[in-house]
Each structure stands twice: as structure tokens, then as C-alpha cells.
TrEMBL record:
The keyword Endoplasmic reticulum does not apply. GO terms for biological process: protein transport; small GTPase-mediated signal transduction; vesicle-mediated transport. It comes from Pleurotus eryngii (Boletus of the steppes). One of its GO terms (cellular component) is cytoplasm. This is Rab GDP dissociation inhibitor. The keyword Iron does not apply.
Length: 451
């Protein structure tokens, strides 16, 4: 391996694959390596044998679950918000040509001991058991305020300032009850905790508008999901990178990230060979995860672990109108926690499991030394569980921006049930690597590139 690359990318998680695809389009010479023999890294989708091998190495999957190839079970479940940043990247890069999407059938919220649908229309809102009659009127005025807000028209501001006033101030102005605030902040603005309430309202406003505009695109829920599982996403960006000259090497051990006397990145050693590049981007596992990482490139964030339970069911989740897929959010106040609990469910409709099988994944941020008990409120909503696989994974973030040593580390995936935070990390790493903001340019078509 004598040739030198502009960038070596380590790990084929979604963040890394998006970056390598975008850098290749930009004309960078990219080498992408992964120690695994499959795409996706921590965010892979596994077949049945791989799933059992990962969690129970000594147990073969039960034959009654059907064929191996019918399964693509996500290790980290996330849905795509129809009008969100992830969709913009997929459309701008034309990666959508390699993927098919299906809508997620319903978005639900847990409140007062029951599951209720997040209203997607005014008619649903009027009928919703989430609010009483007078509260519905107040909520209607709140949503009308958001919909009619124009930055350049003070007449639409009702004396409020989104950049100065907190969400608490705005909730109080419209007299919204705590339960309604929970539903708006967690099921629509998709906050993991309540810290947002004391901050300026601008971001919450933007998040609610994103949710409602995504809902308006398809009706039943604001989420879409790729057929054959999330593992299709990194593969599609890998294909984009390859079209633009990127080189991929799977099943490649990474023995060492080599630096010079000043600590600057030089290259990567793999199986006795060293390949050189100007910069390296990689997921945290290539920079000390699992080892003593003090003084290293990564650290665990405070409240820094996610607990996830992958549950195989033989029925839809009770209380969801027999939906073939859904998201359920349990706001933290409903279960006396600091962080929300998320449930994501998909089924054979999405080509990720056998017919009459449903895969539900319950996840949250760990707050105690008994993580499995923390997801119990979510697991208890699922009805009888055929099998369950529980994992607890740390959330790593880089200790330095990487601009000094040309080593750029991505973040671990958080507990959110959507991709917006992943895209934030893509933008952040891109700016550190390239030195300017990521601007999504319409690229040439494949035929033009090859021609």
C-alpha cells in the first residue's frame, strides 16, 4: 500500500459512511476500512444467526422464527423524519436511488398509564384523549401561534420573542397543562429530557414545525424507514463513495493508528502493511473504546450509557390499533425519570423479519446501576415477548476537535429514535475536517460521472 490517500475512514457506521460518500463527491481520495465483515458497525442490521451469535454465542436461533435471510434486525433503532436533515442528505446525494422507504404507521405517546396516538390532524386532536375540552382549545391557540409566526411580522408575535423567551414562558402564556407540555416537548419536539423548558424557545419552535411538516407529508406519522433495515443506509453511502473513486476494505484488522513525533496522524497499520493519509476519521471504537481511554481521544459523556432491549414479538404492540410499525415515547415525567424511554417497532412489512413476527426495541439513557429495570415501563407495554436481547453501551465523544493532529473522531449513537443528532455530528466533523460548513450541492448524475 504505497499510495497516499487524502482521508482514511475507519468503521462503516452511518456517520462514517455519509462522510466518506460526501468527501468522495468533493473529489477527495478516500480509503474506507472496517474490522468487521459487514457494513454498519454499531448501527448494523443483523440476520438471525448474527443476532444470536452476538448476544448468545452458544445458542442457535429457534427454527420457528423462520429463515435467516428474512431478518435484518437493527442494533440501534432510529427512524427518519420525513422533512428532516437526514432526508435532505439522502435526496441531495441521490442515495435514494439505492433505497426504498416505507412509512412508519403510527406515532404514540404514553400518558396516564395508557398509549395514545399523537394527533396528526385537527380532527384527531379534537378526538384525542390526551387533553380535556378546555385544554384542547388552549392547545389549538398554541399551535395556531406557531403556524402563523413570521419573524418579520411583529403582529404574529403576541408579545413573545422566540430568541429570548423560554418555552416555559410560552407554555404559561397559553396556559398549557404539564401533561400537554410533556406531549409537545417529548412526542413532537423529541427532547430526551426537560432541560429545553428553560432555554430560548427558538429551537423548540423549529423542532415542532419540523414534526408537523413531516406529519403533513405522509399523514399517519412523520417517520419513514428503509426496507431491509437501517444497515441499507451505510451501504448506500458506501456505493456513492465507490462511484466517486472511494476504496472499501471490509474484514480488515486495524492494528495501529500511527502518529509522528509531534503526535500528528501519519497512517494506519493493518496486517503488517501501513497505508498513509493526510487525515483519519473514525468511530470511537478505533481510538480506545473498551481500553483505558484516559488522556486518549475519547471520553464517556456524563449519564453516558444507553440501555437497549431488542424484543421479538409474535403480535403487534397492544393499544396501537394493530399497527405494523410505530414509535411510542414515554415522557420521563410519566415514569419519574430524567430521560424519556423510546419504543420503536417494525415488522415483515419492512422486510426485516419473518411474517407474523414483530421486532420492538426499547431504549433509554441509563440513570441507575439497574439498567434493565429502567426500561421495564417500555418492555411492559409490549405484551408477551418471544425473545429478548439486552445491551448496555457507553456513549463516547471526542476529547479534542482533531484539527491539531488530523485525527477526527465521531460520536457514539445516542438514545434518540431519529437521525437528527447523527446529521449534526456529520456537519460538525465535516467542518473540522474540511474547514468550512457542509453545503449540500446537487451532484452530477452517475452517467455523467462515468462518462
Amino acid at each position: 500500500m504505497d499510495e497516499e490517500y487524502d482521508v482514511i475512514v475507519l468503521g462503516t457506521g452511518l456517520t462514517e459512511c455519509i462522510l466518506s460518500g460526501l468527501l468522495s463527491v468533493e473529489g477527495k481520495k478516500v480509503l474506507h476500512m472496517d474490522r468487521n465483515d459487514y457494513y454498519g458497525g454499531d448501527s448494523a442490521s443483523l440476520n438471525l444467526t448474527q443476532l444470536y451469535r452476538k448476544f448468545r454465542p452458544n445458542q442457535a436461533p429457534p427454527s420457528e422464527l423462520g429463515r435467516d435471510r428474512d431478518y435484518a434486525v437493527d442494533l440501534i433503532p432510529k427512524f427518519i423524519i420525513a422533512s428532516g436533515e437526514m432526508t435532505k442528505i439522502l435526496v441531495h446525494t441521490e442515495v435514494t436511488r439505492y433505497l426504498e422507504f416505507k412509512q412508519i404507521a403510527g406515532s404514540f405517546v404514553y400518558r396516564d398509564g395508557r398509549i395514545s396516538k399523537v394527533p396528526s390532524t385537527e380532527i384527531e386532536a379534537v378526538k384525542s384523549p390526551l387533553m380535556g375540552l378546555f385544554e384542547k382549545r388552549r392547545a389549538k391557540k398554541f399551535f395556531e401561534f406557531l403556524q402563523t409566526w413570521r419573524d418579520d411580522d411583529p403582529a404574529t408575535h403576541q408579545g413573545l420573542n422566540l430568541d429570548r423567551d423560554s418555552m416555559k414562558t410560552i407554555y404559561e402564556k397559553f396556559g398549557l397543562e404539564p401533561g400537554t407540555q410533556d406531549f409537545i416537548g417529548h412526542a413532537m419536539a423529541l427532547y430526551l429530557d426537560d432541560d429545553y423548558i428553560t432555554k430560548p424557545a427558538r429551537e423548540t419552535y423549529s423542532r415542532i414545525v419540523l414534526y408537523t411538516s413531516s406529519m403533513a407529508r405522509y399523514g399517519k406519522s412523520p417517520y419513514i424507514y428503509p426496507l431491509y433495515g437501517l444497515g441499507e443506509l451505510p451501504q448506500s453511502f458506501a456505493r456513492l463513495s465507490a462511484i466517486y473513486g472511494g476504496t472499501y476494505m471490509l474484514d480488515k484488522p486495524i492494528d495501529e493508528v500511527i502518529t509522528d513525533a509531534d503526535g500528528k496522524f501519519v497512517g494506519v497499520k493493518s496486517g503488517g502493511e501501513t497505508v498513509k493519509a493526510k487525515q483519519v476519521i473514525g468511530d470511537p471504537s478505533y481510538f480506545g473504546a473498551g481500553k483505558e481511554a484516559e488522556g486518549g481521544k475519547i471520553r464517556v459523556i456524563e449519564e453516558g450509557k444507553v440501555v437497549r432491549a431488542i424484543c421479538i414479538l409474535k403480535h403487534p404492540i397492544p393499544g396501537t390499533d394493530d399497527s405494523d410499525s410505530c414509535q411510542i415515547i414515554i415522557p420521563q415525567n410519566q415514569v419519574n425519570r430524567r430521560n424519556d424511554i423510546y419504543i420503536a417497532m417494525v415488522s415483515s412489512t419492512h422486510n426485516v423479519c419473518a411474517k407474523d413476527v414483530y421486532v420492538a426495541i426499547v431504549s433509554t439513557i441509563v440513570e441507575t446501576d439497574k439498567p434493565e429495570l429502567e426500561i421495564a415501563p417500555g418492555v411492559n407495554l409490549l405484551g408477551p415477548i418471544y425473545d429478548k436481547f439486552v445491551s448496555v453501551t457507553p456513549i463516547y465523544v471526542p476529547t479534542a476537535p482533531g484539527t491539531a493532529d488530523n485525527i477526527f473522531v465521531t460520536k457514539s449513537y445516542d438514545a434518540t429514535s431519529h437521525f437528527e443528532t447523527v446529521v449534526e455530528d456529520v456537519h460538525d466533523v465535516w467542518k473540522r475536517v474540511v474547514g468550512s460548513d457542509l453545503v449540500l450541492k446537487k451532484r452530477d448524475t452517475e452517467a455523467e460521472v462515468q462518462g
